[in-house]
């Protein structure tokens, strides 16, 4: 019996001392393997008297189980230690900056046009486009600018050299020629927006030779000036994201609308910071009016049957007001720092459901 | 246009205060730009008299004046030529802020003599432009009184007028509008004839052929003899000064005044310089005239001059002549009040580059009925201020008959304006504006238009007048009624362009917007046929040609960023390039550029410069976003699609679908970059958005049906040895073509040329993914497909399977 106790104690000591899984396995084989010491003792059972076999066998089985458990325990101990050592060896400095692709961005002009269209979309407006190079008819004559009218001079038009037929084309001075193209090519009811590049021969702190406008046009048999006001108030509140937005429609003059108005929104300059909303000051944001009967006639529509409104706004101007961009000229400078600051993520698609400026 | 409140009240009986008046002006379309209160800056200034003026000991042009404000005396060094003993002027004492400069006045030494203050000019007080001398107040100005009172300064209202409202280019027209808007009543104006003392010495002769009589339909005048062309009275000088005009002499001031007061330009000639006849005629070729501004102009028809029998005296309706102008010594004058054709005046003014108050009004259209009344009013004022005796009026032509009536249905105000204006109110508004209204119950009215409203042509104009005066604020707002169905606002092409933008931004490119024009030199670098389209009137030589490509402006933008120490540039733009100078000769291009590092120095990754494949990837991204199946794209054959000269010939390509070139990409040509002063490498791309074919519309669900294969996919690697000049893309296409159903992906994972392959050859290694749809692939199936792949590559590019 002491033989078992001694052997067990010896083996348990070896298990406890096993420094790694390899040695532990050798101990296991030496004790429990086919030729192992415990196995060897098991083999002696057959030659014993039944009485002895029973007590020796019982004790041997207990020792065997004990050794088995000790091996398993030591094994998981050694495995844990090995994993800990492996993990310790694999540590990295997670404070280091990772590599990432520098993000790109959208220009505020593109984003602002997307915002504007988004607001007018549920009102049923579709986007129309026209050429940057225009003829006199579409840019002026059809829009009720008589030849030699002083309003023409105010447009600072860029001209192209006359062609073989003596016709002198020009760079469109506003997006209004798109109105003419839409009315000539389509039939009311019309609800369109026309964003695009426009050109005037002028360059200073508030003028650039190229800028962007969005034109709006609604033509049917019933749209009146109350709709014009309602539509633009709905737009301005949504665009500037100010519910309590004072607005003012001032009588003005454009050759292609009558009555005409300029639209101001309220603002405050208290503390030197421009804030859109209720306040002491006004900011002009757009021009508008009821489409002039002469324009309807020039486009082949009967002014006794059809009426409607048109408006035009400067994209850069409304972007500057909304996003606090101080200088118009910076829109066209391609300064990467400016683009990254005032630009918009590709994933930032303005929507009415998800918010415009987010 | 500028005027003061008291000036307005000459014509308008009103109790309204300044704020009420300015608010109403803006509300009816006479937009107040600014209210200037010059008195605010004069608090520190007082009336003072020069008691003595001595020559400065060390300066010929300076005087040392002893000045009193009634309490103290001051020694003031003054450079004004008109400083003299007895003059009463405006003294700024040390500590006062000079309005024109904002500087605080200090006691200082001027050429060694202490100056204890300053006698101010009109300009120094920001009351006008005059700086020829110090202000001279009337002899009865009380010494020590505040300068604001003595100068009769009052707030000046500056309104911005729209080009249609010539009637409001006179203070009286503004008053009429205000009266119409309920801000008071319009006072009457004495336009009655002044009885002359006999026939006029000068006869009027309109020397215009019949086809030119419209250039001056009416010419009125008279001689006034025995006038004293003295200084204008204080009130007149103060009014002109207040609105920034310089008082000259009574005769000149009176014509200036009536121009502003009534919007009626007039001219007074010195009779001693005028012959026996006067009138308009066409300028002769190269006829010269020295104008009042001291400039000699060369004239030609159809410019109009006012001439006597000998020579031109004035540029009609634009500017008087120097020689026939009134001077201090003038005693007899010929007063002219005429009507000129707006278009001709505008053209003359533009061609000669003359800006004048007369031109400004005539080119917009002066009241055609006002020639005679203007002459009468001016005569009365001249007689009152300068004395003298007037002859009978002389006249050529006649005031054109502009009378017209408009049929006006008061119900149309609500139809167009969306507000119910009571018809009595509509009528009252029109009548207060000077329209004649013949109302009829339940029927359209007949409305006659006053002569001064040449802008009013039809019923819509009358509706505007009613709404403008009734108030746009009174129009109730109505949201646009919804349409029964809402479609996307953007059409397919526009949606595609939006996707391209956001896809490129998603690839790390920054969107920019550059001019549609550039310099001729840059245009020529990027124009294949050297065909360029210049502007006729460019803003500058840098911006004088329409852009034939988006790249040059992007390259210039990259260079500017490089100069700001940002060498790693990734920019794109979506916009037009121009292929002609007629409407429609433009195409939409998505272009981009990258310079510097594609991957910057970083501890984790290898630094890498941009290369042609970055640009290719950008172009493919844009095309994929636009719905192109990029696997079907081919690199265009050099013979059929010559690459643009601005790309590196060995590092660029075209992306085509058959004969349709959708994009160029590659490294930009080093010589082009060098000529554009750009250092280093740049790569770019141009995607021709308009040429991208539109995918077929699906008839059923919005996506094609799809079910992932149930069977195990297999990957197999192949390496082919091909001639060096064989295009890798062709190898890939050959492999794909071996079985278009089974092969779902082909990836090139290695390209090798070197010792281990024969000279003149290269090895291309590909991984092919097979996705069976009917049954799991057997070894035999895979063997068979491999054989087909190998023979396809053999056939297409003479490639051999590498051992």
If you had to describe this structure to a student in words, what would you say it looks like?
The complex is a heterodimer of chains A (358) and B (803). Chain A is of the alpha+beta class. In chain A, 40% of the residues lie in helices and 19% in strands. Chain A contains twelve helices and ten strands. Chain A has helices at residues 2-17, 21-32, 37-44, 50-89, 108-120, 136-139, 150-153, 177-185, 225-240, 293-298, 315-323, 336-342; strands spanning 126-127, 133-134, 170-171, 190-199, 210-220, 247-254, 257-268, 275-276, 281-291, 307-314. In chain A, strands 1, 4, 5, 6, 7, 8, 9 and 10 form an eight-stranded mixed beta sheet that branches. A two-stranded antiparallel ribbon of chain A has the order 2-3. In chain A, strand 6 and strand 7 (257-268) form a beta hairpin. In chain A, helix 1 packs parallel to helix 4, helix 2 runs antiparallel to helix 4 (50-89) and helix 5 crosses helix 11 (315-323). The longest helix of chain A is centred in the N-terminal third of the chain and has 40 residues, at 50-89. Chain A is rod-shaped and about 135 Å long. The model of chain A has no long low-confidence stretch (mean pLDDT 93). The radius of gyration of chain B is 41 Å and the shape is elongated. The mean pLDDT of chain B is 92. By secondary structure, chain B is α+β, with helices and mostly antiparallel strands. Chain B is built from 19 helices and 42 strands. In chain B, a hairpin with a 4-residue loop joins strand 5 and strand 6. In chain B, helix 6 packs antiparallel against helix 9 and helix 7 (342-352) packs antiparallel against helix 8 (357-364). Chain B has a seven-stranded mixed beta sheet, sandwiched between helices. Chain B has a five-stranded antiparallel beta sheet with strand order 6-5-4-7-10. Chains A and B meet through helix 5, strand 1, strand 2, helix 7 and strand 4 of A and helix 7, helix 10, helix 12, helix 13 and strand 28 of B.
């Amino acid at each position: 019996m002491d033989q078992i106790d001694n052997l067990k104690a010896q083996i348990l000591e070896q298990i406890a001392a096993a420094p790694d899984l390899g040695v532990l396995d050798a101990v296991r084989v030496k004790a429990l393997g086919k030729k192992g010491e415990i196995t060897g003792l098991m083999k002696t059972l057959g030659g014993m008297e039944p009485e002895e076999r029973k007590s020796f066998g019982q004790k041997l089985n207990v020792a065997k189980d004990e050794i088995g458990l000790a091996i398993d325990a030591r094994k998981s101990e050694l495995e844990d230690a090995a994993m800990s050592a492996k993990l310790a060896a694999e540590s990295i400095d997670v404070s280091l900056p990772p590599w990432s692709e520098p993000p790109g961005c959208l220009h505020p002009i593109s984003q602002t046009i997307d915002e504007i269209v988004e607001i007018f979309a549920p009102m049923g407006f579709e986007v129309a486009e026209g050429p940057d190079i225009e003829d006199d008819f579409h840019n002026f004559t059809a829009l009720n600018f008589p030849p030699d009218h002083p309003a023409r001079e105010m447009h600072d038009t860029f001209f192209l050299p006359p062609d073989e037929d003596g016709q002198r084309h020009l760079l469109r001075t506003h997006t209004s020629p798109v109105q003419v193209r839409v009315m000539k090519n389509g039939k009311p009811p019309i609800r369109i927006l026309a964003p695009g590049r426009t050109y005037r021969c002028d360059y200073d702190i508030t003028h650039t030779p190229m800028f962007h406008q969005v034109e709006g046009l609604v033509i049917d048999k019933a749209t009146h000036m109350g709709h014009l006001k309602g539509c633009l108030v709905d737009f301005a509140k949504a665009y500037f994201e100010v519910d309590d937005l004072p607005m003012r429609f001032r009588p003005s003059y454009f050759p292609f609308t009558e009555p005409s108005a300029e639209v101001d929104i309220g603002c405050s300059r208290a503390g030197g910071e421009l804030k859109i909303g209720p306040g002491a000051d006004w900011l002009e944001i757009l021009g508008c009016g009821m489409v002039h009967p002469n324009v309807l006639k020039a486009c082949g529509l009967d002014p006794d049957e059809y009426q409607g409104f048109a408006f035009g706004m400067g994209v850069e101007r409304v972007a500057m007001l909304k996003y606090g961009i101080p200088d118009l000229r910076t829109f066209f400078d391609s300064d990467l720092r400016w683009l990254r600051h005032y630009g918009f993520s590709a994933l930032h698609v303005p929507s009415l459901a998800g918010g415009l400026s987010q | 246009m500028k005027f003061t409140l008291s000036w307005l009240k000459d014509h308008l009986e009103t109790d309204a205060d300044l704020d009420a008046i300015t608010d109403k002006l803006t509300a009816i379309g006479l937009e107040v730009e600014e209210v200037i209160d010059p008195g605010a800056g004069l608090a520190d200034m007082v009336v003072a008299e020069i008691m003595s003026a001595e020559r400065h000991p060390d300066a010929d042009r300076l005087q040392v004046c002893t000045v009193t404000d009634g309490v103290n005396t001051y020694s003031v060094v003054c450079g004004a030529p008109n400083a003299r003993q007895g003059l009463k002027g405006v003294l700024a004492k040390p500590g006062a802020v000079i309005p024109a400069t904002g500087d605080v006045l200090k006691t200082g030494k001027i050429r060694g003599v202490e100056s204890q203050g300053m006698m101010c000019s009109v300009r120094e007080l920001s009351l006008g432009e005059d700086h020829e001398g110090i202000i001279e107040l009337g002899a009865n100005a009380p010494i020590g009184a505040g300068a604001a009172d003595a100068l009769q300064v009052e707030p000046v209202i500056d309104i911005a007028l729209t080009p249609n409202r010539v009637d409001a280019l006179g203070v009286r027209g503004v008053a009429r509008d205000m009266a119409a808007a309920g801000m008071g009543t319009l006072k009457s104006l004495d336009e009655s004839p002044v009885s002359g003392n006999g026939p006029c010495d000068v006869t009027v002769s309109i020397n215009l052929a019949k086809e030119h009589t419209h250039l001056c339909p009416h010419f009125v005048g008279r001689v006034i003899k025995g006038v004293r062309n003295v200084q204008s009275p204080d009130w007149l000088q103060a009014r002109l000064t207040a609105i920034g005009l310089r008082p000259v002499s009574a005769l000149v001031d009176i014509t200036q005044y009536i121009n502003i007061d009534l919007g009626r330009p007039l001219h007074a000639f010195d009779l001693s310089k005028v012959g026996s006849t006067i009138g308009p005629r066409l300028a002769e070729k190269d006829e010269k005239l020295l104008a009042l501004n001291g400039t000699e102009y060369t004239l030609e028809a159809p410019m109009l001059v006012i001439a006597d029998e000998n020579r031109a005296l004035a540029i009609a309706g634009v500017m008087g002549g120097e020689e026939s102008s009134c001077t201090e010594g003038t005693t007899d004058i010929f007063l002219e009040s005429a009507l000129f054709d707006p278009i001709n005046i505008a053209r003359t003014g533009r061609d000669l580059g003359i800006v004048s108050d007369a031109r400004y009004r005539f080119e917009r259209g002066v009241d055609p009925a006002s020639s005679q009344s203007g002459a009468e009013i001016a005569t009365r004022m001249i007689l009152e201020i300068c004395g003298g005796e007037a002859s009978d009026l002389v006249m050529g032509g006649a005031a054109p008959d502009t009378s017209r009536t408009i049929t006006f249905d008061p119900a149309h105000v609500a139809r167009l304006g969306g507000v119910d204006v009571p018809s009595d109110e509509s009528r009252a508004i029109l009548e207060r504006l000077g329209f004649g209204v013949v109302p009829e119950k339940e029927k359209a009215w007949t409305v006659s238009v006053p002569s001064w409203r040449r802008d009013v042509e039809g019923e819509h104009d009358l509706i505007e007048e009613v709404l403008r005066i009734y108030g746009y604020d009174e129009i109730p707002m109505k949201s646009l009624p919804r349409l029964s169905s809402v479609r996307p606002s953007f059409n397919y092409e526009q949606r595609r362009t939006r996707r391209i933008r956001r896809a490129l931004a998603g690839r790390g490119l920054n969107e920019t917007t550059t001019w549609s024009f550039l310099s001729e030199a840059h245009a020529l670098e990027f124009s294949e046929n050297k065909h360029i389209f210049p502007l006729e009137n460019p803003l500058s030589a840098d911006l004088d040609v329409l852009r034939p490509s988006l790249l040059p402006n992007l390259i210039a933008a990259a260079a500017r960023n490089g100069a700001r120490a940002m060498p790693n540039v990734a920019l794109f733009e979506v916009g037009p390039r121009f292929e002609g100078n007629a409407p429609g000769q433009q195409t939409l291009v998505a272009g981009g550029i990258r310079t510097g590092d594609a991957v910057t120095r970083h501890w984790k990754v290898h630094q890498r410069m941009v290369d042609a494949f970055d640009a290719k990837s950008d172009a493919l991204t844009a095309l994929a976003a636009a719905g192109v199946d990029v696997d079907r794209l081919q690199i265009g054959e050099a013979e059929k699609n010559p690459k643009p000269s601005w790309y590196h010939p060995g590092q660029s390509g075209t992306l085509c679908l058959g004969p349709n070139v959708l994009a160029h990409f590659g490294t930009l040509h080093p010589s082009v970059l060098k000529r554009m002063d750009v250092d280093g490498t740049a790569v770019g791309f141009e995607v021709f958005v308009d040429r991208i074919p539109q995918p077929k519309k699906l008839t059923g669900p919005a996506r094609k049906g799809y079910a992932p294969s149930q069977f195990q996919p297999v990957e197999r690697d192949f390496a082919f040895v091909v001639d060096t000049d064989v295009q890798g893309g062709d190898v890939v296409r050959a492999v794909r073509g071996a079985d278009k159903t089974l092969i779902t992906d082909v990836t090139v994972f290695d390209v090798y040329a070197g010792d281990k392959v024969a000279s003149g050859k290269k090895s291309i290694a590909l991984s092919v993914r097979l996705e069976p749809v009917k049954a799991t692939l057997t070894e035999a199936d895979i063997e068979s497909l491999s054989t087909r792949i190998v023979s396809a590559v053999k056939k297409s590019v003479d490639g051999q399977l590498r051992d």
